[in-house]
């Protein structure tokens, strides 16, 4: 008898699992239900539809051959019975049925299954604040909402949008609204920097400056207390620091897994939500699988369970589930949390743990940032890439990496290489320094920037390099009248001399080429010294020379390049 497979959810994981299972087991009867109007679409592309990069909404629903993935597509081409406007209400595990409701007619019925897949995804988190139910307050996590806000933009009904939350979707939507539609945009983030779950503080400042350069106002360390309305529609956002006029508010403070239907059926779930699954993506009921935004997964670095709502993971898990529905033994071992995002001119990516996450997991971790060229320095078009490495001091184990660049492909390539290492082993700094990557001048330096990042981190952990963050360097600079630091610029004189002339006695231009001849005469032994150069490399060499002279120094990680990316260079 042909097995009867029922899939709840038809956006990402559901369609992948259905198509894979049907290919491997053509005799199976597969039904996929979804409560929405649209199925099998690229939800991560929503900001690019709103911003005009994807000109038509159906572009998010089509195959690479231009065919729309609708109910007829799945029925005729995939052999899957896809049913929209159908909400799953409850699961009867004893009878192996799911009670569903037609969202248009209210009619209820029971659908039987031999194997069940829960792909119910997630829902946007809406804070319990006054005014959250006003008109023009939304979250953009589905095509219906995306279409509505795009139509408002096209009709020029939005003048000032406030986005609450500086995660992926929030920042992507901010760029979309400001760039395509010229809308005034304010982003409010409760924590102290944007992308707080993905970026270190320093890189968060680079991202903030990049957004501000296109006119977006970014407010960090600020919480929203209330939304005020007029005639039933939002008109103001009240924070703990100010009141902001707004005619559109978008919540982007994360999502919560839609796991209630599983919990109500007695399926094991995490205390904070999310279905628990084994490596075969089976729930505590072996006839029920789950994946995507509705599950928690094992972090391969910390060993802890984590929640990672990413479309890429949902698709990979969907294939595993589809294989196993057909009798296979495919596994999904866990995640290292690889991600990437496009901002204004900058692209960011990362994998593994941030410093905060690493320390929370019990590692004695530090982070080391550096700047390096993504191509050979003599090749036209090279840019400086920012790399941040998180490492355990004692074991030298690499725990995470982040990158930022104006070349998205370049920074993603470096992150992907480290992500692969993190998945299959416990890489050390030695592994990172010696990671074999492709080389030709149009693509990389002979010592690739990711190798150089490993080398810099090794020097810091070994005690050779006393590096401080750009934020720490700027704190020293702003307090220079009290701390008596001498700031020594190792760049060529044309870069450092103008600053020295503006700040005599506090800032010294001392090019590395002149260092041996001048250092002993011009650098006092009774003042603390802060070194800076273009990217940190020349200042590191000067630091070693001064150490031989008995002078301890600090070196600003990433040099003036990092300061420029943060918007701090003008403060000199």
Write the layout of secondary structure elements.
Elements lengths: L3 E5 L4 H12 L4 E5 L12 H5 L20 H8 L2 E3 L2 E7 L4 E6 L5 E5 L2 E4 L3 E3 L12 E2 L4 H12 L5 E5 L3 H14 L2 E6 L11 H12 L4 E4 L3 E7 L2 E7 L3 E3 L2 E4 L3 E3 L2 H5 L23 E3 L6 E2 L6 E2 L4 H15 L13 E4 L4 E6 L2 H6 L4 E9 L10 E9 L5 E8 L2 H17 L4 H5 L15 H14 L4 E2 L1 H9 L1 H4 L2 E4 L3 H10 L4 E3 L5 H8 L6 E4 L4 H12 L4 E4 L2 H8 L6
Parallel strand pairs: 1-2, 1-7, 2-3, 7-18, 9-16, 10-11, 10-16, 11-12, 26-30, 27-28, 27-29, 29-30
Antiparallel strand pairs: 4-5, 5-6, 8-17, 13-14, 14-15, 19-20, 21-22, 22-25, 23-24, 24-25
Helix pairs in contact: 1-8
Largest sheet: 5 strands, parallel
| Strand segment count | 30
β-strand amount: 15-25%
The share of residues in helices is: 25-40%
Shape call: globular
- Give, in spatial order, the strands making up the sheet with the most strands: 3-2-1-7-18
In DSSP terms (H or I, runs of 4 or more residues), the helix count works out at 18
Average pLDDT score: 97
Structural class designation:
alpha/beta
Give the CA-CA distance, first to last residue: 77 Å
- Using the CA coordinates, give the radius of gyration: 27 Å
Which segments are poorly predicted (pLDDT under 50) over 5 or more consecutive residues?
Answer: none
């Amino acid at each position: 008898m042909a097995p009867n497979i029922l899939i709840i959810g038809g956006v990402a994981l559901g369609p992948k699992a259905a198509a894979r299972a049907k290919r491997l087991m053509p005799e199976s009867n597969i039904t996929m239900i979804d409560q929405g109007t649209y199925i099998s679409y690229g939800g991560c592309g929503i900001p690019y539809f709103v911003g005009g990069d994807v000109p038509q909404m159906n572009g998010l629903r089509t195959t690479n051959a231009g065919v729309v993935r609708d109910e007829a597509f799945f029925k005729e081409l995939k052999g899957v019975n896809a049913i929209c406007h159908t909400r799953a209400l409850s699961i009867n595990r004893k009878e192996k049925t799911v009670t569903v409701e037609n969202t248009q007619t209210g009619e209820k019925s029971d659908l039987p299954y031999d194997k069940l897949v829960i792909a119910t995804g997630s829902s946007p988190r809406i804070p319990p604040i006054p005014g959250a139910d006003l008109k023009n307050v939304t979250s953009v996590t589905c095509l219906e909402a995306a279409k509505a806000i795009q139509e408002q933009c096209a009709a020029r009904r939005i003048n000032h949008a406030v986005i609450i939350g500086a995660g992926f979707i929030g920042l992507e939507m901010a760029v979309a609204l400001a760039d395509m539609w010229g809308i005034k945009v304010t982003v409010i983030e409760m924590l102290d920097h944007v992308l707080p779950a993905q970026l270190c503080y320093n890189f968060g400042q680079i991202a903030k400056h990049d957004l501000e350069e296109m006119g977006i106002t970014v407010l960090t360390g600020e919480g929203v207390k209330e939304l005020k309305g007029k005639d039933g529609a939002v008109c103001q956002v009240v924070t703990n620091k100010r009141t902001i006029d707004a005619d559109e508010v978008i919540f982007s403070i994360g999502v919560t897994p839609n796991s209630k239907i599983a919990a109500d059926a007695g399926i094991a779930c995490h205390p904070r939500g999310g279905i628990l699954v084994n490596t075969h993506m089976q729930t505590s009921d072996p006839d029920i699988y789950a994946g995507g935004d509705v599950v928690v997964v094992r972090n391969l670095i910390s060993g802890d369970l984590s929640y990672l709502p990413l479309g890429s993971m949902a698709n990979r898990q969907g294939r595993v589930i589809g294989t196993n529905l057909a009798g296979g033994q495919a596994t999904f071992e866990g995640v290292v949390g690889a991600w990437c995002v496009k901002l204004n001119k900058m692209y960011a990516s990362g994998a593994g743990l941030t410093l905060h996450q690493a320390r929370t997991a019990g590692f004695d971790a530090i982070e080391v940032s550096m700047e390096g060229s993504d191509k050979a320095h003599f090749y036209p078009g090279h840019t400086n890439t920012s790399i941040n490495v998180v490492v355990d001091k004692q074991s030298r184990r690499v725990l995470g990496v982040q990158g930022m660049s104006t070349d998205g492909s370049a920074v993603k390539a470096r992150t992907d290489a480290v992500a692969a290492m993190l998945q299959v082993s416990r890489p050390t700094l030695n592994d990172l320094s010696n990671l074999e990557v492709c080389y030709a001048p149009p693509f990389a330096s002979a010592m690739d920037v990711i190798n150089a990042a490993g080398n810099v981190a090794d020097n810091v952990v070994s005690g050779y390099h006393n590096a401080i963050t750009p934020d720490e360097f700027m704190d020293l600079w702003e307090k220079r009248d009290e701390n008596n630091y001498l700031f020594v610029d190792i760049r060529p004189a044309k870069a450092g001399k103008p600053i020295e002339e503006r700040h005599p006695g506090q800032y010294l231009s001392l090019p590395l080429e002149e260092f041996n001849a001048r250092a002993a005469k011009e650098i006092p032994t009774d003042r603390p010294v802060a070194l800076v150069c273009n990217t940190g490399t020349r200042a590191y060499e000067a630091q070693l020379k001064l150490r031989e002279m008995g002078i301890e120094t600090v070196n600003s990680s990433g040099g003036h390049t990092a300061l420029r990316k943060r918007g701090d260079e003008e403060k000199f």
